[in-house]
Amino acid sequence: MDADIFGPSIPTLLNLRNHKATTITKTNLIEPLINFNLKCMSIGFLTKSDGPIVWRGLMVMQAIEKLLRQVAWSPLDYLIIDLPPGTGDIQLSIAQLIPLSGVIMVTTPQELSLIDVRKATEMFRLVHVSILGIVENMSTYFCQKCGHEEKIFGENGGQLLAKEFQLNILQSLPIDIHFRQACDQGRPIVQENQTILYSKFTNLANQIVELMNINKNTTE
Ligand SMILES: [Zn+2]
User: Fold this and answer.
1) How far is the CA of 135 from the centre of ligand 1 (A)?
2) Cβ-Cβ contacts under 8 Å for 93 (sequence gap 6 or more)
3) Residue 209 C-beta-side C-alpha neighbours within 13 Å
């Protein structure tokens, strides 16, 4: 579920741009779109144009509720919600509307990103949502020509955050031109199983599943 009401990216990431959602007459529920064996829903499938969405407060919360409750999600293995950055109405509404098994904090190593992620971490702790760990994105860059490494967004940002909040870094993802291209073209990188990013993402997914199972067993 794409919870970014103002900048939905799931339609592009899953190669479903210009697709629109339909409503099932019998149940009056919205039918999720499916690609790569993933059900998905985004405000991008529900609005008429690609123009800016100029909603505020209440309308945003209604949109989130619609995406959560008026979509024929079931059956599902997991409901993964892609959140926009920050600590606004969207994050709070979701935390209040449904029980969350956990959140993953995504940051780049730079201080500007850490500031936002710190606030979000504190917010989720405040509403008692378990934080499963940190993913450090854009952690480093390897030159295409000579292979030298450059820490474009700074160093050790993820570690710093991990230490501050006593969390684990689940994965560090480098800046990668093929990954960027794959995202823009709507090709999930995990379809290409020979790449380093494939192993990094599968490893991340396996860790998340394991952490959620541990959480489930300790709360039952
Ligand atoms: Zn170089």
Assistant:
1) 26
2) 60, 61, 64, 65
3) 8
Q: How far is the CA of 187 from the centre of ligand 1 (A)?
A: 28
Q: Is the pTM higher than 0.85?
A: yes
- Tokens 């390897």: give the residue: 142
Neighbours of ion ligand 1 (CB under 5 A): 143, 145-146, 148
CA-derived radius of gyration, the chain: 18
Distance 150 CA to ligand 1 centre (A): 9
Give 142-178 pLDDT, tens digit per residue.
888 898 888 888 888 889 999 999 999 999 999 888 8
Residue 166's region, left for phi above 0, alpha for psi from -120 to 50, else beta, is: left
Return the bridge partners of 29, or none.
24
